[in-house]
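Data availability excerpt. The first of two example chains:
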Amino acid sequence: MALTGRLITGTTDGTSGSNTILGLRFPGLDLLPSTKLISAHLELTTKNDGTGPTTITIRGHDQQNMPLLQNNELLSDTAAKPRTSASLNWDITDDTEKDETLVSPDLTAIINEVIQDPANNWLLGGALGFYLSDGSNSRSFYSFNNNPALAPR
């Protein structure tokens, strides 16, 4: 199943020098809580050249339906935007070029935590969400609003 998501840029705490947090929202998922995922990955296309290695930490939105996000929204508020305990580090070790598509490591554990947790009350057609936070040498990715053809999938 290939899906297109919306990527929103947020901030950690609004202060200068804080890392950026990206929010990804994939609405209308046809996944039941009983779905057994084999594998799942994000594909993100770089908007600019990137230099140096970086690590992107990915966590899921730990609720049944991720709300719509706004640009520059404070995404570090984990009370309002709860995170999964499952996470992964995506190590990007090489320089990247503009319009290069990068594929994340497997996200199955994160997605299963969201859709299979009875407390989340996951429903068919819900919006699955992810939060990506970066370390040094950040990368820029296209969003649906920048270029729907190169939007996260």
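And the second chain:
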Amino acid sequence: MNQSNNTPDARRAVDRLLGRLIGGDPTAEADVLRLVEHDSRLVEPSDFRLVEASDFRLVERVETTATTDPDTSSTTQDVPTVGLLVAGAVLAGDLAPLMRASSLATTARERQLVVLARACLSGPADLFDDLIRDHLATYPDHLLAAWLAGRRN
């Protein structure tokens, strides 16, 4: 039985996985990448469009219809969280999961995390340093953002 990532148990499981990743658990990286890869098969690239925003290209979801993966009988509602997609994008060095993460981000903290990951992967170092410093000043308890800062250096 698939659980949506909106259930408390599923969110706690993702939080534990990200905690393992941040803490250096050698198996966590493969688990994150596997979940992000699974999510990428559930989303059609045509569901998104690029939007210019300052120095970064952000992505907006164009349509909200659910897509079903016949291999897993999952829908796009059974997807990783923003943090998991960001971690997977950084681990893989791939911007594609950030498209999905930007469509799921609902809070300023989540939207900033997506922009931070994009800057980490492809932005100038001084821009990333400024963005991460500002983000961590506002959200000093954001361990995933601190992990991103460590990955860039």
